[in-house]
Design brief:
Strand content: 35-45%
Mean pLDDT: 84
Number of helices: 1
Largest sheet: 5 strands, mixed
Oligomer: single chain
Helix content: under 10%
Structural class: mainly beta
Shape: globular
Distance between the termini: 64 Å
Low-confidence stretches: 4-13, 16-24
Strand order of the largest sheet: 18-19-20-21-25
CATH class of the largest domain: Mainly Beta
CATH superfamily of the largest domain: Kelch-type beta propeller
Number of strands: 31
């Protein structure tokens, strides 16, 4: 009879030759590692990981495989093969600021789209105009291939209570080509503007909260709705935000959309999270550190797993220059990591690159900050028009 061999349940340190690995601790990471949360780009060769290492998230049992352990730039994939450390919707070429409210002190709603390069120089140019006319407070997302931007909802002029109404139209524009093609592709399930939650999956845009002015009244919303990024462009009411909210900053991980601060109408400092592709309501998962609630800009550091809450307005109504970041892992808390170049009010979603973010405000300037600390911003160019509350997207 042939000999039956068994595989031992444990590998003893005594069975590992000193020449095989540097240390037993590093050997364990080379094979399999348990930790709360998903790996980041910092889980690299310096910590003992190699291509092929397996990471188990002890909070949910999800598995990740290291594809590249390069120092500070490690790449980990989930069980579906997706690179979790590189935000698939981060920009590498151009950013777009969409519509807005201006000039400063005025009530003129703008229709222009400003395009600027994410590599220097960053001067903005007028790239086109909305098909429905001027809009302010729209929600933005892209298609999976990053060939076009989607703009949902917003205010039609004139803005504000007693003036125009929030709308439900969704318009697309091509990221390349001249002239750009502006197309009305459908309607949201709920008309809304100043949308608190802006995110996406490869096939859906996700918009949550916001405000609706039906006939001049102020109705703050708690609806989370999705919109297909391919025909037939269907809109669906899928769940609710934890509380009715407007004017939040927003960021996203591959699995969740986050809202920082906002107004209920009272200013709040909570951080809310919604799990994509579910009917679950959003939940309160943490708090911002500095006193800056509504009218802040949001950005996503997808490689390292952080959301950014930029400037905004505090509870007494004063503008602040604090830049905060918060981890996508739970519990989630904000920390002060830099200063904005001016005290400004921003649109909820600004432009996110792979290592930097860009904003614009009613100064007419384009500001850039690094995701690495300190995240202080600097003036790097001028927008095509001077507006505040511009929404943004990128490719």
């Amino acid at each position: 009879m042939a000999e039956i061999r068994t595989i031992p349940e444990k590998i003893l340190a005594s069975g590992i030759k000193d020449t095989s690995v540097d240390a037993v601790g590093k050997f364990s990471k080379k094979v399999i590692h348990h930790n709360a949360g998903a790996p980041t780009t910092a889980a690299d060769t310096g910590l003992g990981y190699i291509a092929g290492s397996i990471w188990v998230d002890s909070t949910n049992g999800k598995l990740y495989t290291c594809l590249d352990a390069t120092a500070e730039s490690a790449v980990w994939a989930n069980m579906e093969g997706d690179d979790i450390n590189n935000d698939p919707f981060a920009g590498e070429n151009y950013g777009f600021f969409v519509g807005g409210y201006g000039p400063p002190g005025g009530a003129d709603v703008k229709s222009e789209i400003t395009r600027f390069a994410l590599s220097a120089p960053h001067a903005g140019s007028d790239y086109g105009e909305f098909a429905p006319g001027g809009l302010y407070g729209v929600g933005c997302f892209t298609d999976a291939a990053k060939t076009k931007g989607f703009c949902g909802g917003g205010y039609s002029p004139p803005a504000g209570p007693g003036g125009g109404d929030s709308i439900d139209e969704v318009t697309t524009f091509n990221f390349t080509g001249s002239p750009i093609a502006m197309t009305d592709v459908g309607d949201l399930d709920q008309a809304t503007a100043n949308i608190s939650m802006q995110g996406q999956t490869p096939s859906l845009g996700i918009l949550g909260g916001g405000i609706h002015y039906p006939g001049g009244s102020d109705a703050i919303l708690n609806v989370i709705q999705t919109f297909g990024t391919a025909a037939p462009y269907a809109a669906t009411d899928v769940s609710e935000t934890a509380t009715a909210m407007r004017h939040s900053s927003t960021s996203e991980s591959p699995t969740h959309v986050y809202c920082g601060g906002g107004a209920t109408p009272s200013q709040v400092d909570n951080i809310y999270r919604y799990e994509k592709s579910t009917t679950d309501n959003s939940a309160d998962v943490g708090e911002l550190t500095a006193s800056s609630g509504a009218y802040a800009g949001g950005a996503t550091d997808g490689r390292n797993g952080y959301g950014f809450h930029i400037a905004g307005q505090n509870t007494p109504g004063s503008e602040v220059d604090v830049i905060q970041k918060y981890p996508f892992s739970s519990p989630t808390s904000g920390s002060d990591v830099g200063e904005y170049s001016a005290n400004r009010q921003l649109g909820g979603k600004q432009v996110s690159g792979t290592t930097e973010f860009w904003t614009t405000d009613n100064s007419g300037n384009i500001y850039k900050g690094a995701f690495a600390s300190p995240a202080d911003t600097s003036d790097v160019g001028e927008a095509a028009i001077t507006v505040t509350y511009s929404s943004a997207t990128q490719y």
